[in-house]
Specification:
It is a single chain. This protein has twelve helices and eleven strands. It is an alpha/beta fold and 354 residues long. It has two domains: 115 residues, 3-Layer(aba) Sandwich (Rossmann fold), CATH 3.40.50; 213 residues, Rossmann fold (3-Layer(aba) Sandwich), CATH 3.40.50.300. α10 links the parallel β10 and β11. α3 runs parallel beside α4. It holds the Pfam family DUF1611. InterPro entries: DgcN-like (IPR011669), DgcN-like_C (IPR035086), DgcN-like_N (IPR035402), P-loop_NTPase (IPR027417).
């Protein structure tokens, strides 16, 4: 799937920042690809990039309209269809990470045929996957897991890729969600894979590798979330992680979208180890990544210090304070991984930005 850049980011009229997390992720990690945002009246999210009309976006060089939103069920609201049709008529391709296929909407399919523009459904893959086999494969793997959905699992894995490569380690981010695929240019949206093949799809994403190579696998959902635990469990078994980082947002009391209380970090550690031992008996936690965006700096540091002491693990906000302590722990726990061969880290970084 080759999606033409630059992008014009479409936010529709989403009610909050989390509902536009795909767009935020792309802007945070690929800002040079984003010429501006297109918002409908009532939109409560703002990417901090210029508000543009379709004509202005095309004038600035945009080639693809990105539907950069998420919602329960991954549906495309009917009142957004006119904007998507207008984008194609203005000369833009359209890419979406929603479950609803763009071409399944008659008006969008007709506009694509009429204008010759391309439709990209990033959440859907044409690849056929086997069922997971659970056979230990070479290489090292780290999985980000969460106390909830939308707590920073993708950002933590991407920050670790950057930090580990800077230290000379051989590491690659492996995308398992639509935003990660937009950012990395590869991967599979695991929540759109038929349940029987989830673990097999993750094995395909992260195949056997050199002994010292790290695959940093983006987590999804939470083992405790009643809506998404099935995806999280299949991902855990397919990833066969040697290490995992627990991701957490400290101001939440209930899980997003449901009434269930947030599990404790200890509960997440224990259940991840208990379930993960099925495909990797050596699984272990190596750190805690905390989204402290809602906290002042002093309060954030106090929370991190408390969690680190409570669990005996390094705790950091990967975006705010970096991942050095997590990388230090990985190097200490897995000394045989060593550093990448000369030039490998630089070559990997170039590949990730291609």
């Amino acid at each position: 799937m080759q999606i033409a850049t630059p992008y014009l980011m479409f936010l529709g009229d989403v009610p909050d920042r989390l509902a536009a997390k795909t767009a935020y992720g792309i802007v945070d990690w690929r800002p040079d690809w984003c010429v501006g945002q297109l918002r409908l009246p009532g939109c409560a999210a703002d990417l901090g990039i210029p508000d543009l009309t379709l004509a202005q976006g095309v004038e600035k060089g945009a080639r693809t309209l990105i539907v950069g939103v998420v919602n329960a069920g991954g549906v495309l609201p009917d009142h957004w269809v006119a904007s998507i049709v207008a984008a194609m008529e203005a000369g833009l391709d359209v890419a979406s990470g929603l479950h609803t296929r763009l071409g399944s909407v008659p008006a969008i399919a007709a506009a694509a045929e009429r204008t010759g523009r391309r439709l990209h459904d990033v959440r859907h893959s044409d690849q056929r996957f086997d069922t997971g086999k659970g056979v230990k494969r070479s290489g090292l793997r780290l999985l980000t897991v969460g106390t909830d959905c939308s707590v920073g699992k993708k950002y933590t894995a991407l920050a670790l890729e950057r930090g580990m490569r800077a230290r000379g380690l051989d590491a690659d981010f492996r995308a398992t969600g639509q935003t990660g695929v937009f950012i990395s240019g590869r991967g599979v949206a695991i929540d759109a894979v038929v349940a029987d093949f989830i673990s097999g799809a993750v094995e395909w994403i992260s195949p056997a590798a050199a002994a010292g190579h790290w695959d940093l696998i983006e987590g999804q959902g939470s083992l405790f979330h009643p809506s998404f635990a099935g995806v999280s469990l299949g991902l855990l078994h397919g990833a066969q992680p040697d290490a995992f980082v627990i991701c957490h947002e400290p101001t939440r009391t209930r899980m997003r979208g449901v009434q269930h209380p947030l599990p404790s970090i200890r509960e997440v550690i224990d259940l991840t180890i208990g379930c993960g031992r099925l495909t990797n008996p050596g699984i272990r936690p190596v750190g805690i990544a905390v989204n402290t965006q809602a906290l002042g700096e002093a309060e954030a540091r106090a929370v991190l210090e408390r969690l680190a002491a409570e669990h005996g693990l390094p705790a950091t906000d990967p975006v705010r304070f970096g991942v050095e302590t997590l990388v230090d722990r990985l190097v200490a726990e897995f000394p045989a991984a060593g550093a990448a061969p000369a030039g490998a880290a630089a070559a990997g970084a170039a590949g990730a930005s291609a």
